[in-house]
Structures are given as C-alpha cells and as structure tokens.
Description:
The structure is a single chain. By secondary structure, the chain is α+β, with helices and mostly antiparallel strands. Helices cover 21% and strands 17% of the residues. The protein has helices spanning 2-8, 31-44, and strands at 54-60, 63-68, 73-76. The protein has a 3-stranded antiparallel beta sheet with strand order 1-2-3, with no helix packed on it.
Amino acid sequence: SSGINAEYGGFDPVDAEEGMFLPQKGGHVSIRNLVKASQKVALQNGVDRRTDVVTSIVKNDAGFLITLESGNMMTCEKICITTGSFTNFFGLLRKTPDIKL
C-alpha cells in the first residue's frame, strides 16, 4: 500500500490492505466476475460455502461458533464476512461506521 501511495499519491490505505490498480485505459473490474472468480478459487482451496443467514458469531477456544437462521450451528477457525445491504442486520459487526451523507 505504501508503494502505491508513494508512486501515485492521494491514497490513504492501511498497511494490511491489499488492492488493485488499473492504469489509464486499463478497463474496469466487473464486480460480478470478480466475486465469481473469488468463489471458484475459494472452493478449489477447500472453503465450505454456505448460503444460510448468520445470526450469531461467538469467539471461543476452537475459533468461532456460528449460529444460522435455520437453527443449525457450526464451528470454524476462520470466517469471511461479505458485505452488502444487510451485513449488520443481526448486529454481527462490533461497530457500525458513522456515515454522514
């Protein structure tokens, strides 16, 4: 991130963030294709993809205890929260950003 900022300026990324830079005339990123490709790579690398709604995430000694809207529960070592309109519908995130329009 510091390399992008040094070369192009105007960016304020956190060092742990990763990003993609498309130079002029680089086209555009199709979000649908990016998501589709990311899901394919994740599945090829052993990710267990679920489409149920998560209602609770509790950190424990094994990692995380996940409760689903269907009532099913599961444990995992890592989780990936994808964002969208209802990301924090069940209060899963610690703090909602203070966004002023």
